[in-house]
Amino acid sequence: MVEVVVGTQWGDEGKGKVIDYLAKNVDIIARYQGGANAGHTVVVNNNKFVFHLIPSGILYSDKICVIGNGVVIDPVALFEEIEYLKKNGIDVENKLYIAENAHITLPYHKILDQVEDKFRGRGKLGTTGRGIGTTYTDKYARIGIRVVDFIDDDVFMEKLKIALELKNYLFKEYYKEEILSSEKIFKEYEFYRNEMKKFVINTSLYLNEEIEKGKKVLAEGAQGTFLDIDFGTYPYVTASNPISGGACIGLGISPKKIEKIIGVAKAYTTRVGMGPFPTEIKDNLGERLRSIGNEFGATTGRPRRCGWFDAVLVKFACIINGIDEIVLTKLDVLTGFEKIKIGVAYKYEGKIIENYPLNSKIFSNCDVIYEEIDGWNEDISKVKSYKELPKNAKKYIEKIEEKINVKITKISTGFLREQIIER
Ligand code: IMP
Questions:
Q1: In the Cβ-directed half-sphere of 38, how many Cα atoms lie within 13 Å?
Q2: What separation in Å is there between the alpha carbon of 384 and the centre of ligand 1?
């Protein structure tokens, strides 16, 4: 059967570490959406690995990793990652499969992503500039190039010419950018086309066959619920569906096959890029969270905005994802804070709001109602069991559970594989 791991906030919840931890009990790890905008960090034996496209499970020699059809693949980023893994003694051949119906990110997607965001002016989204939204746009405009087209020279050239006719018109006439040559891209990507062939299969058929044989699949979501194109803080969202439902579409598996949904929540909240963030801390405490938690984007290096845990958001995430249990990460970062706040409701024009409002006018302008608990000073980074945690840390965890109505089953207290408490 299938277990899904989803982010319950704005991404960067620590899913990479959680997936790495859970991967030991499964056979296949499959990524279902997003692209090289994601950055999953895993530290093993003092080696830090940052994955953008390849599932974090690749570090296990006996696991298969799948990049599903819902992912958008930048071949340059993919092969940089493959090369980096090779240099670190990890060979991905026969361990990685790529969906033939996933879409490919090409140079014009990356350029367009960057210039479009510049042209948005006041409405700038602060995208990662990795060509994610523009690749998905082409997918839905039906001028996208899929993996299966990319690895066939004739089809690729034909589709590339069609796509570039429109893009070059935009570059020349509107954005005043240099136009691109299909011949040049065709040549530059020859290496990637040839190399990619080794990995390409019908991954949905493969996954279903393996599930039928009794194999366990861990479906890995990138980003988080509030970056979801449908349920996130639109338009300040990514262009895919990180929520658990996205796993069915992005892998080609039936909802009937999903057995468990695991939500990952950071013990506080962070956000990269633009968009409303009610519990954001704008003073020194926010700086303190950023520096202790090393809150800088794994993909772009941008400083992450930091704030208190928002239980209204995570409660909504638990509902729409159908979350069975929560893994709470980076609890150690809160050590030493005298008081810790939890956002438990919002207030807008005198009215109390207990559920996440999809209306962005309300969400952008509401005040937060907080509950406050006393902090702790004890070092928790080596704690191995729940009962050894300081009393106030336990109070904090239990308060969160009460607010989100879902059990916290694991607590991560550091970036190392072994720094995780099973409850
Ligand atoms: P895009 O996904 O590059 O289009 O960016 C859209 C928004 O999603 C921006 O605010 C990004 O900062 C944010 N975003 C995309 N990927 C991630 C991620 O993996 N972690 C956190 N934020 C992300």
A1: 34
A2: 33
Q: What are phi and psi of 145, to 5 degrees?
A: -120, 120
Q: Clarify whether residues 248 and 308 are in a common domain.
A: no
270 and 407 share one domain: yes
Q: Of the candidates 151, 174, 194, which is a domain's last residue?
A: 194
Marked catalytic residue, from 12, 74, 113, 228: 12
- 11 CB within 6 A, ligand 1: yes
Q: What is the pLDDT of residues 93-119, one digit of tens each?
A: 999 999 999 999 999 999 999 999 888
Ligand 1 centroid distance, CA of 38 (Å): 7
* Same domain membership, residue 225 and residue 147: no
Nearest CA to ligand 1 atom 8: 238
Cβ–ligand 1 distance for 37 under 6 Å, the answer yes
State which of 33, 52, 139, 238 you would mutate to test the pocket of ligand 1, scoring each by most atoms of that ligand within 8 A of its C-beta.
Answer: 238
The rounded Å distance from CA 371 to ligand 1 centre is 29
Kindly list the distances between the CA atom of residue 88 and the CA atoms of 40, 46, 58, 77, 229, in Å, as whole numbers in the listed order: 17, 12, 12, 17, 36
8 A C-beta contact, residue 96 and residue 54: yes
The secondary element (H helix, E strand) that includes residue 158 is helix 153-169
pLDDT band of 336, cuts 50, 70, 90: very high
- 254: domain CATH number is 3.40.440.10
For 179-218, the pLDDT digits (tens) are: 999 999 999 999 999 999 999 999 999 999 999 999 999 9
0.90 exceeded by pTM = yes
Domain that holds residue 183: 103-194
